[in-house]
Amino acid sequence: MTPLRIFISSVQTEFAQERAALRDYLRGDPLMRRFFEVFLFEDVPASDQRHGVRSC
Q1: pLDDT, tens digit (0-9, with 9 covering 90-100), for 29-39
Q2: Beta bridge partners of 37
Q3: Alpha-carbon distance values, 27 to 10, 11, 22, 46, 47 (Å)
Q4: pLDDT value of residue 13
Q5: What does the pLDDT read at residue 39?
Q6: Region 39-54: what's the mean pLDDT?
Q7: How far apart are CA 46 and CA 3, in angstroms?
Q8: Which residues, listed in sequence order, are joined to residue 40 by a DSSP beta bridge?
Q9: Is the dihedral of CA 18, 21, 41, 36 positive or negative?
Q10: 3-state secondary structure of 7
């Protein structure tokens, strides 16, 4: 079974600790990590490439 990808995001910087705590919980729990792959925007390095976006 392929894990479902979960994207955790918020525009409010004051929730950075909560986002990281949720990511760490989901990755650390043996049952949750079997079913979910967590993606946090802050974990991705900046890039000048647009992936999956086509120009008009």
Answers
A1: 999 999 999 98
A2: 5
A3: 19, 22, 9, 23, 25
A4: 83
A5: 87
A6: 70
A7: 25
A8: 8
A9: negative
A10: strand
Say how many Å lie between the first and final Cα of the chain, rounded.
36
Tokens of 25: 């919980």
Predicted confidence (pLDDT) per residue in 10-28, tens digit:
878 888 899 999 999 999 9
Q: Which two tokens stand for residue 38?
A: 């967590």
Higher pLDDT: 54 or 36? It is: 36
The owner of tokens 């992936």 is: 51
Distances (CA, A) of 5 to 8, 14, 27, 36, 55: 10, 24, 12, 6, 26
- Helical (H) or strand (E) element with 22: helix 16-28
Q: How far apart are CA 39 and CA 5, in angstroms?
A: 7
The gap from C-alpha 5 to its chain's centroid, in whole angstroms, comes to 8
Question: Looking at the whole model, is its pTM more than 0.70?
Answer: no
